[in-house]
Design a protein that fits this description.
The complex is a heterodimer of chains A (135) and B (574).
Chain A lengths: L1 E5 L10 H8 L4 E2 L5 E5 L7 E5 L7 H5 L5 E3 L5 E3 L9 H5 L6 E3 L4 E3 L16 E5 L4
Antiparallel strand pairs in A: 1-9, 3-4, 5-6, 7-8
Chain B lengths: L1 E2 L4 E2 L5 H7 L2 H12 L13 E4 L13 E6 L6 E6 L3 H7 L4 E5 L6 E6 L2 E6 L9 H11 L7 E4 L2 H4 L7 E3 L3 E3 L4 H7 L2 E6 L4 E2 L4 H17 L1 H8 L6 H7 L20 H7 L1 E5 L9 E9 L7 E8 L1 H7 L8 H14 L3 H16 L5 H4 L9 H13 L3 H6 L3 H8 L7 E2 L2 E2 L7 H9 L5 H4 L1 H7 L8 H21 L11 H10 L8 H19 L12 H4 L9 H15 L2
Parallel strand pairs in B: 1-6, 7-12
Antiparallel strand pairs in B: 1-2, 3-4, 3-6, 4-5, 7-8, 9-10, 9-12, 10-11, 14-15, 15-16, 17-18
Helix pairs in contact in B: 1-2, 2-21, 2-23, 7-22, 11-13, 12-15, 13-17, 18-20, 18-25, 21-23, 21-25
Classes of the chains: A alpha+beta (135), B alpha+beta (574).
Chain lengths: 135, 574
């Protein structure tokens, strides 16, 4: 099963079209619902960091959820059961790559479902859907 | 609205303004008129700073710009400057359509703005930092919101009230023209940061996604967009040099055999280190050179400086000063960026000073021992520092712009400013100059007169009246684009139907036919503000140099310019 993969962050120009695409899945503009983020690596002169869910086979975010709102996704990562979520932020704190983002308006995490919608809007081949590689 | 004097803020619902004026330029001019008293001192507390974004920002690609309006300390009338970076999306995501900053602070301050309001943060510890880059680095660590925030700040030039100081955002984008940086400085305002995380609702989700995909596809497939992505705006150097329309050495000439050295192609091949985009822009026109150089006295000790370049910077700080050594030019661009000056005004001021010294109007008494010579970058770099620090009357005069300096020292015939704003890099024919004279910002961006000239290389030049009508139509339409706020590079994509359709999904019903009149109304409002502040079209000065140096369309006829300018203003108010 494929997952969202950052194939070459050096090609990233910081346009954030992936972020806008992610929010647009829900039919809205802006970035509130984006489960992917691009930020500068300490200033635009240093290039960009693309922060995205790694689809961990054994996800730390899931392990700390006190209400079991995160369930394992086939192929790695998690699926959010929003009805159960109490908005405690523990999943966001547990993610070592800070890829659990927060929808302040809904007070729920923005969790990548590895649908690949953002990949279709990356004009510079930074993102791709790939099989997870095991070391 | 933030009041720096009282250190208070209010949040107001001004849906009325956005409904009528769309956003961006339309809303900004309306707010400027509302909050700027007649005859206000441009460097006093009464001069408001207005930032406005539009309904397409955060929704569609290439709607990436913020419009700033203020009373210009350079021209004394309309100050308007646009910038991208993350500024527009950040303001919209924080939940605002416009930000108005009034009053002045007694002690240095910076503003941290989010959806909860405005924090007035003490900036006394960072006041006096001359570098706009360092200022950005410090504030980056102090504030949250990495990735989606904007950090607009000034360097030493803004603090020292140079009338063409810029405001820098995200290191490489600028509210460059007409002196917003000095207005910041006059308020002891070192920076403004904005961040937020609000979503934006649309009226019809399906139509939104369809319209989005249509615009996106056209953007990534357009050859114009490819041009701006590949070589960038610097791709204009070679064609303009070949056409003999590249202003060189204070417009004594319009071409140089050495121009290839500062061309976009050469810079891309040898120096291009990174391309960067504004938020929500697939094009990534921002080109940054990586200049790797050794320290003089330390073997194997190098520094690599990342320096942005664009056509206008290469013109102003390259060809205009006779600097055709690309490394020297990049150094000067870097200096001007760090101090936070408008590159175009700085280049034109220095090119005038060079010629004034050649002609003996000024001597080393005025220049503090500097001997300006075409191509002598180290001397120009020292002069830039003097312009910021203003150690004597001469440099203080240069800091007020070329119009002012030439009134004081002479040489007005070759002081290349229009309506008080220094000339852009196109001497393509008469229409470019009509555009500088009539444009509400006296900028090439107002109506792109150069493109009418360039079309006339193959076709016939329109007569003065027809040229005026074309410029007016283009400038009026650009008021719509800058109210949405869409980057002018995307003007080929955002045609009238696309604008109406995308506005509809944003909850704005406007008939495509009604857009022209709305654009014209916004343009009239801007011109009314100018006149209110003393601007008189009949008193526009045209530097004689424009008529002396042939353009690609031959020598320019003064009668053509005067007739066309007169017609423009007649049509504007008709």
């Amino acid at each position: 099963m494929t997952r969202l993969t950052v194939v070459d962050a050096d090609r990233c120009v910081g346009c954030q079209l992936c972020m806008f695409a992610c929010s647009r899945r829900f039919g809205e503009g802006g970035l509130a619902k984006s489960a992917i983020r691009v930020r500068s690596a300490g200033g635009f002169e240093r290039g960009f960091v693309v922060v995205a869910c790694r689809a961990c086979p054994d996800p730390p975010c899931m392990k700390v959820c006190p209400v079991d709102a995160l369930e394992p996704r086939r192929g790695g990562g998690v699926v959010l059961k929003a009805g159960k979520c109490i908005g405690c932020h523990r999943c966001a704190e547990a993610c070592p790559v800070h890829a659990v983002f927060w929808d302040d308006e809904a007070n729920k995490p923005d969790i990548c479902v590895h649908c690949g919608y953002c990949v279709g809007y990356c004009p510079h081949e930074v993102l791709a859907m790939r099989e997870a590689e095991q070391l | 609205m933030a009041d720096l004097t009282a250190r208070r803020f209010t949040v107001e619902d001004r849906a009325d303004l956005f409904q009528y004026y769309i956003g961006g330029a339309g809303v900004a001019i309306s707010l400027l008129k509302e909050y700027c008293p007649v005859g206000a001192d441009s460097l006093g507390p009464d001069n408001p700073i207005v930032f406005a974004v539009g309904p397409l920002v955060g929704l569609y690609p290439l709607a990436s710009k913020t419009v700033a309006m203020f009373k210009s300390p350079l021209t004394g009338n309309l100050g308007e400057s646009h910038a991208g970076g993350r500024s527009a999306v950040a303001i919209r995501s924080a939940g605002y359509g416009a930000i108005v900053i009034r009053g002045a602070s007694e002690s240095p301050v910076y503003l941290s703005i989010d959806d909860k309001g405005v924090q007035f943060r003490d900036a006394s510890g960072i006041w006096g930092i001359a570098s706009s880059v360092t200022t950005g680095r410090i504030i980056r660590e102090l504030e949250t919101g990495a990735g989606t925030r904007t950090i607009m700040r000034i360097g030493g030039a803004g603090e020292r009230l140079v009338r063409y100081a810029s405001v820098i955002t995200e290191t490489y984008r600028h509210f460059g023209r007409l002196g917003l940086g000095a207005v910041f400085g006059s308020k002891k305002l070192k920076a403004v940061t904005v961040s937020g995380n609000h979503g934006i609702e649309v009226s019809d989700r399906k139509l939104y996604r369809e319209t989005y995909d249509d615009i996106y596809r056209r953007a990534v497939e357009s050859p114009v967009m490819k041009k701006y992505h590949d070589i960038g705006t610097a791709s204009n150097i070679m064609p303009l040099n070949l056409q003999k329309g590249l202003p060189t050495m204070n417009l004594k000439t319009t071409t140089s055999p050495d121009a290839e050295r500062i061309s976009g192609e050469r810079l891309a091949e040898n120096y291009l280190g990174r391309r960067v985009a504004c938020a929500h822009c697939p094009v990534a026109c921002i080109h940054i050179a990586a200049l790797r150089e050794p320290y003089e006295k330390e073997p194997y000790f190098y520094k690599t400086t990342m320096i942005p370049y664009d056509y206008e910077l290469i013109y102003a700080l390259g060809s205009m000063l006779g600097i055709f050594d690309e490394k020297a030019m990049l150094h000067l661009i870097d200096d001007v960026e760090i101090w936070g000056l408008d590159a175009m005004s700085t280049g034109v001021v220095l090119s005038w000073a060079t010629e004034a010294q050649e002609k003996g109007l000024i001597s080393q008494n005025e220049t503090l021992g500097l001997n300006f010579r075409w191509g002598d970058e180290p001397t120009y770099a020292k002069a830039v520092e003097h312009i910021v620090k203003q150690p004597n009357e001469f440099y203080a005069a240069l800091a007020r712009g070329v119009d002012h300096a030439s009134k004081r020292y002479g040489g007005e015939d070759y002081a290349l400013a229009f309506g008080g704003n220094e000339m852009p890099g196109y001497h393509t024919g008469p229409v470019s100059h009509v555009g500088y004279l009539t444009g509400s910002r006296h900028s090439h961006l107002d109506a792109a007169g150069y493109s009418i000239d360039q079309a006339a290389l193959k076709d016939k030049l329109p007569d003065p009246k027809a040229a005026a009508a074309k410029l007016l139509k283009e400038e009026a339409w650009r008021q719509i684009l800058s109210s949405l706020v869409v980057c002018f590079f995307a003007r080929g994509i955002y045609d009238k139907d696309t604008v109406a359709k995308s506005l509809e999904t944003a909850g704005h019903k406007v008939a495509p036919e009604a857009l022209d009149e709305k654009g014209m109304e916004i343009l009239r409002e801007k011109n009314r503000f100018k006149e209110r502040e003393g601007f008189k079209a009949s008193e526009l000065r045209i530097p004689g140099r424009v008529f002396e140096t042939a353009s690609p369309l031959g020598k320019i006829d003064e009668k053509y310019l005067r007739e066309s300018v007169e017609e423009f203003y007649r049509l504007l108010y008709a």
